[in-house]
Amino acid sequence: MEKKKILAIKDFIESAEKSIKNAKKLLSEVLKENNISIEEMTLDTSGLTSYRSENSKIVEWVFTWEEMLGSDNHKYPVPSNYSSKSKLVQWDKLKLTIDENWKMIYKQILPIERETKVGLLIKENGKFGVVAEGKTYCVLTAAVTHFKAEIGDNVTVILPQGREATFAAIEAVIPKE
Asked: Domain 114-173's class?
């Protein structure tokens, strides 16, 4: 009986390895077709640290969109109201302080260079997005609510400059004439 389990596990591992190999090949082809380097897409956690200060744990992290990737390689949720009001952008570096009572305090420590685009607010499959210069960027529902934006509004969005992004931060709603 154990021999069958071991063979099944071995088959699962081999299948997973083949899937990973095929996924890497497909990713490489898509990146090449779209003239994108993997370095542009990879979140850089180098130089970030985790440490303790008094009774608090402090983790430096990179903002991904709906979460943050910490220097400790864990993912942490980011309150969407904080993200939208602070106009966080992918690749921004922040610091999270977790005190002994699990109170979390967020602070931006190194914003990435930004660019601004104008786009149209849309909603597809229950999620908000902004179409700007032929590309659709995800935006937070909290930002749409915060700015009292409506589907069809023109908005300005903030993006990381010179990087391929999937998420944009809403900066403002452009008033209708």
From this structure: mainly beta
